[in-house]
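stage 2 :: seqdesign
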């Protein structure tokens, strides 16, 4: 049985490229989701401002 190394090499390269592209897309989507979750909240409005509170922004 003769093994065709050219076809196996091409398929292996295509698989590696597919895996790399999938990982890159996944990282981009993860960044977008992380930014969305970090920035998608409403800040609670404080009626009483504490002097000891360092984050007493309005």
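stage 2 :: out
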């Amino acid at each position: 049985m003769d093994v065709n190394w050219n076809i196996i090499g091409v398929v292996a390269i295509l698989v590696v490229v597919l895996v790399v592209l999938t990982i890159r897309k996944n990282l981009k989507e993860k960044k977008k989701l992380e930014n969305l979750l970090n920035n998608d909240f409403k800040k609670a409005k404080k009626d009483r401002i504490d002097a000891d509170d360092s984050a007493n922004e309005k």
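stage 3 :: structure notes
- The mean pLDDT is 84.
- The radius of gyration is 26 Å.
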